[in-house]
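Can't paste images in this forum, so I'm doing it all in text. The chain is below; anyone willing to post the predicted structure tokens underneath?
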Amino acid sequence: MDTGRRPDEICQLRLDCLTHDGHGEPVLIYTDSKNHRPNRRLPIAEATARIITSQQADVRARFPGTAPRDLPLFPRDRRNLRGTATYDEPAFTNTHRQWVNSIAPLLVTTATGADGKQHEQVFDRLAVIPYAYRHSYAQRHADEGISPDVLRDLLGHDKIGTTLGYYRVSEKRVRAAIDRVSGHQFDSQGRRVFLDIRGLLADEHARMRVAVPFGVCTEPSDVKAAGRPAPTSSPAWAAGTSAATRPTCPSSSPTCSSCSPTANGSRPPPNCRTGPKPSSPRARKRSPSCGS
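Text version of the structure:
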């Protein structure tokens, strides 16, 4: 779980898979099964090393008559008198599934509901599979700012494009990157433009997140209408990004709430006269959608 190795690589670990580097830090020795590269070295945490040490002691106690060099770290439970047979991936996956099912009630997380309040939500136990730990390993390291080239080596990938598919760039990291760079930007008068950058970020956040009665609005200027129909000069009106802002008749006011479609889809009142007066006799002809 804490090493990010593939399930079959975990099954094939040898009893003597733990060593230390020149600085005394723990290192895991494993075989990259996908690329056929033995004796790969992976730096691991002290907590992970202690778990491996405990497992080593347990295996030696179970099979005292077998030489340590012949023992795997995870010997098979059945039909394995000398302890030399290892777990295979299907057996490991099945045992893992039984364990996850036994702790399913404990798999809860905190989520924010539509009302803005936090509540407990049960995690989907079917999503907890051995290979998911490899993706979690990549995501945790990426969230801590580990560069993609280093993460590629940690995961044992040949191509960095493969590594990039193992994690997502969170909004928190994007905002932190922008804030870090914007702190060193100045305008022609020597003033920092940090505040201007933060304003642009706020608009972009509104573009992606703000909800309107007919869905999610993707135009920040439409959000400034505060729920009312957007002016015809607004980019939201021209782009059609908000279904609740497009006027339904030529005679309606740019901000006429009575001419805009309502939530139940009703038509505007037939006596709508709030718009500007027509400038030509040809435009005096009433639109069918504005009454008879």
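Residues 182 and 195 are 9 Å apart (CA to CA). The first helix runs from residue 7 to 11.
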